[in-house]
Amino acid sequence: KLGAAFAFHYSTDRSYWQLVRYFALDQPHDIRAGFLAQAPTGDACTATFSDVAYTAQAVQDIRSGV
Fold first, then answer.
1. Partner residues linked to 23 by β-bridges
2. Is the Cα dihedral 36, 37, 40, 42 positive or negative?
3. Are 23 and 62 spatial neighbours (Cβ–Cβ below 8 Å)?
4. Interval 1-29: pLDDT, tens
């Protein structure tokens, strides 16, 4: 999150972060985050989330995730 902008990134090496999507939302007082997998063009999908980490630190550049 940076200002009113939110961004989704992923990394396979924790060094380079790939931007998936960024967008703006109204600023609710209670923000919660979670994980989700979708199959927008298919009937189903399987996803495994592993090695998940959270750091309470703002990014300097929302597009690079750094």
1. 6
2. negative
3. no
4. 777 888 888 888 888 888 988 888 887 67
